[in-house]
Design a protein that fits this description.
The protein starts with a helix and ends in a 20-residue tail after the last strand. The longest helix is centred in the N-terminal third of the chain and has 14 residues, at about 5-20. The chain is globular. The chain is about 20% helix and about 25% strand. The chain has three helices and six strands; from the N terminus they run αββαβαβββ. It has a single domain, classed as Cytidine Deaminase, domain 2, CATH 3.40.140.10. The chain is of the alpha+beta class.
Length: about 150
Amino acid sequence: MDLSVHIRDAIVTHARRCLPEEACGLLAVDETGCIRAAYALTNAEHSSTAFTIDPDDHFRALTDAEAMGWRIGGVFHSHPVTAAVPSCTDVAKMLESGWLHVIVGFADREQPEVRGWRIEGGVATEDIPGVASPVASAAEEGGGCP
């Protein structure tokens, strides 16, 4: 499953805007499993160390994806000060088996890393989404969570 540059950059932009809180959202996939959209959603916890997708936002994303003939097939969130590696909490609170879990890590605020993971049976395995260009620098993006 590839993560296009356009979608990856949209995820990173949302993550930057939500700093210092964790950002979160859902990924829509088509019938072939191709990622078609990233829904930037509200972190109901407003926390820098945890996220819960707002239930109303979740429902709107699901409804939109289904109207397009897609399904929700992944989730993304950010780690405001650490690497893009699933934490024990991420593994324990896995939303759906088989989903792609994209994490934006801000251990280096100027060069955030974006990595994809599959979490099955309490084990996280890296699933590297294909990306063709570097992440834009922080100076090119806005701030403040929408």
